[in-house]
Amino acid sequence: MIRKSASDGNAAGLVHLLARPSARALLALALILAVGAIFNADGAFFRWDTHRDMLRHISRFGILACGMTLVIISGGIDLAVGSVLGLTAVLSALMMIHWQWHPLVAVPVCLLIGAASGAVSGGLIARFRIQPFIATLAMMVFARGAAKYISGGRKIAQGVETPSGFQFLPLPSFFDLLNAKIFLDNVAVVTLVFLGCLALSWVVLDRLRVGRHLYAIGGNETAARLSGVPVGWTKVFAYAMSGLFAAVAGICQAAQETQGDPEAGVSYELTAIAIVVIGGTSLTGGRGGMVLTLLGTLTIGYLEKILSINAVSEAGRLMLTGAIIVSAVLFQRSRR
Amino acid sequence: MATLLSMEHISIAFSGNRVLQDVSFTLRAGETHLLAGENGAGKTTLMRILGGVYTDYEGSIRLDGEPVRFHSPVDAARRGVAMIHQELSLIPSMTVLDNLFLGREQCGPGGWVSFRRQQAACRQMLARVGLDLSPHTWVGDLPMSARQMLEIAKALSMDARVIVMDEPTSSLTAQEVERLFSLIAELKSEGRGIVYITHKMEEIYRISDRITVLRDGALIDTRPASDLPREELVRLMVGRELTEQFPERPSVSRADQPLLEVRDFTVPDPGGSPRPAVDGVSFTLYPGEILGIGGLQGSGATELLLGLFGALDSDPRGEVLLEGRPYRPGSPGDAISRGIACLTNDRKETGLALCLDIVANATMASLRKYSPSGIRRPGLERAAAEHASRRLNLRAASLDMPVEQLSGGNQQKVVLAKWMLSEPRLILLDEPTRGVDVGAKQEIYRLLFEWSREQMGILLITSEMPELLALSDRIMVMHRGRVTGWFTRDTATPEGVLAAAMGRVQEEMIA
After folding, report:
1. Is ipTM beyond 0.85?
2. Taking the alpha carbons of B66, B70, B74, B77 in that order, is the dihedral positive or negative?
């Protein structure tokens, strides 16, 4: 009897601590790191390079997850981000490599196109009450088609065929910059871009009125509407932000690959959703936040990195990732 | 006549609230037994126990003298108890045929559905209730009245001996009502028992053999209909004395300028029925006045409020003047900016975002004030929520608690806080004390009086008669979308209000 109550006390303390979603997400990340420390691939896990490369690799997904978080908190989902990433990768390569546009022109145009594609999805959802899954599925297919149409189905790279022969165009310095590593090669620029996107989304979600509106809509759309929240416009905004971040990721993708691949970003939306969900943001809307998405990004990033430095085959990696996503989500839910 | 069903000493409580207390009820073979009572008297709860929806009750049920305890609606249906619900249980995206055989498909060997057999049976079932339909019609394409008849056909096809009809005529045309009544006569002659619930006085005396009156979850009396004249029935339903449970209504000086003038306000039925939900309602509300709206289920009072708030999909018709200026209810956002607040009758579904904290919920309707430029001032939000929760005496460990962890009374205070912070001139209240404990009710009453003293206009719907009588300066009673009675504080009696709510038009209306 006495022993039982003592253990109850400990359990209660733990439960109390784990009542916070951020604590749970942190614990999940800590577990992954502990696994990495054990299976460290002859010390590879303890080298900064490994972490830097992981961060560089996961940054594009993290950028997509920023927009995805806004959408998911409003109770929606955006399946189009992978395709919009592909479209803007093609567009930015076309503008900056082939047409030699200045990045100050090309980047805003790409961002605008990304945001516009999101606004269209949001408009379909808000105005015509199409389910987010369907509307963004349609946008996903459409944007992929647009990427292939604009690129002619080929990768937009430095080499081009002209009537006078094969020509090799210079890579824009903006791509080199995005692709660089700074602080004595210790941090990838795309990682800084990711952190910037994260900070921007945090401001939107936590410091702007529209952020409250997103939570209210995800919490109870009817109650939000009856409280005078402009539900339609807020949704359009959320999807436009998601499209905008997809464009940011698309430009980074083009820079990292030094080309615009119309096939880029296939299934990236699923990774972005996995990041958001593993962080602990609820797919039903209303609960979650950017800190959770940061932790989710790191968790997924480290998971993939640890599996790859231990030379787990791709087949095994995919199966393990699937299993771990399910356990992480069950773990997130168990304390509610 | 043999006793078909007896429910003995039934009691049930939901989260500590006693809803039924020692109620006994018998149904004889071949009778129509009417269950009467105000909203919340426990009629529907009693029938849900019979139908196997609520299984955690005290007491016993005997069917044909044999003790039974149903574990689910399916279980009850199998034993011969059929329910015709107010909320239709048909699936709009399936055909008539598929709906009628849902869950009991006529299967041959190997699980093959025998469509031929089903079709033949389906035609028979439809003919019985006088529905001339193809079995392959989509239910979603049918008008509400046909759906209601279909629901009845479905119950009949189960060969039930006990048939419970809860407001079956609410969406039927006069002709269909006749059809239903002759069907009921037929069922009675076959020795089946019918439990009938209705709020319509004219129906009560047409079809009932015996009447059982429930009040506040207790059995009041069971008598043959012939022994229970109208006035007596209404008296039994209302029954209770007004006790000293209401704070004293402070006198409020009445302004000359009306706050709200509504002329010939009409709201189409949200379900698509040709009969409007609100039909040509006119009234005037003065600042500081509490205008109570009385009515039973389907009175249209809720639609009137939502229509005024701009919260319905279909546009209401009629003329509305707010503070002397024309007002067209377009959207809740417009309504709020014109100084209108609306507390809906279901805080969990339409009032609160349950997973969000108190601050987020309390400031939801007034965020613009705390972030004029779009940039939030979390400090202002918190201060406002703190101020409102202090004034409302909200009890919560912290303002960061998700509202789902609060009690019903405190949740309601969060909704009230939300509307208080929007600083309305006109507040529309639909059942503000529903599911709220006694202490919180008192506080809500005092709040209403305070608001009234601040010259706020209040439209109040409440299904609790004492509350309606004690809080309202004037009472407007509605029945099926129309105004059937007007009362002042001095002329209002429970009997008069209830009779008007059941459709008896008051002789001389004082508007």
Report:
1. no
2. positive
Q: How many folded domains does chain B comprise? A: 2
Taking the C-alpha atoms of residue A136 and residue A119, their distance in angstroms, rounded to an integer, is 11
Structure tokens at B413: 């205070």
Question: Which chain A residue's Cα is nearest to B339?
Answer: A228
Cα–Cα dist B411/B409, whole Å: 5
3-state secondary structure of B265: strand
CB contact under 8 A, B353 and A219: yes
Residue-number span of the structural domain to which A264 is assigned: 40-156+171-334
What the block records as the tokens of A186 is 């210790």
**One-letter amino acid for residue A319 of the chain:** M
**Number of separate domains in chain A:** 1
Flag whether A49 is in a domain: yes
- Amino acid letter for position B225: A
**CATH assignment of the domain containing B429:** 3.40.50.300
- To which residue do tokens 């609606």 refer? B73
Q: Which of A29, A26, A25 is nearest to A301 (CA)?
A: A29
Which residues on B lie below 8 Å from A208 (Cβ)?
A: 371, 374-376
Last residue of a domain, one of B203, B238, B273: B238
Domain identity same for B201 and B318: no
Helix A209-219 vs helix A48-73: crossing angle, to nearest 10: 70
Same domain, B332 and B457: yes
Chain A nearest-CA distance from B258, in A, is: 25
The answer to whether B349 contacts chain A (CB < 8 Å) is yes
State whether A208 and B342 contact (CB < 8 Å).
no
Tokens of A227: 């409280």
The per-residue DSSP string of A132-197 comes to: HHHHHHHHHHHHHHHHHHHHTTS-B-SEEEETTEEEEPPPPHHHHHHH-EETTTTEEHHHHHHHHH
Cβ contact, residue pair A211, B376, below 8 Å: yes
Tokens for B333?
């956002």
DSSP per-residue letters across B165-232 = EESTTTT--HHHHHHHHHHHHHHHHTT-EEEEE-S-HHHHHHH-SEEEEEETTEEEEEEEGGG--HHH
> Does any domain span residue A206?
yes
Tell me whether residue B297 is in a domain.
yes
Q: Tell me if A11 is assigned to some domain.
A: no
Domain that holds residue B201: 3-238
Same domain as B80, residue B160: yes
What one-letter code names the amino acid at B368? R
Residues of B in contact with A229 (CB under 8 A): 333, 364, 367
- Per-residue pLDDT tens listing for chain B (511 residues): 688 999 999 999 876 677 888 999 999 999 999 998 877 788 888 998 998 888 889 999 999 889 999 988 888 888 889 888 765 678 888 888 888 888 777 776 777 777 788 888 888 888 888 888 888 888 888 877 788 888 888 888 888 889 999 888 877 777 778 888 988 998 899 899 999 988 777 788 888 999 999 988 899 999 999 998 888 888 888 775 545 478 878 777 777 899 999 999 999 987 777 788 999 999 999 999 999 999 887 889 999 999 999 999 888 999 999 999 999 998 999 999 999 999 998 898 899 999 999 999 999 999 999 988 899 999 999 999 999 999 998 888 889 989 988 888 899 999 999 999 999 999 999 999 887 777 788 889 999 999 999 999 999 998 888 889 999 999 999 998 999 999 998 898 888 898 898 887 776 555 4
Same domain, B325 and B184: no
DSSP string over B11-33: EEEETTEEEEEEEEEEEETT-EE
- Secondary element (H or E) of residue B9: strand B3-14
Q: What is the CATH number of the domain that holds A176?
A: 1.10.3470
Which amino acid is it at B200? K
Which 8-state DSSP code applies to residue A100? -
**Partners of B162 in the β-ladder:** B81, B193
Contacts for B140 with CB less than 8 Å, ≥ 6 apart = B92, B93
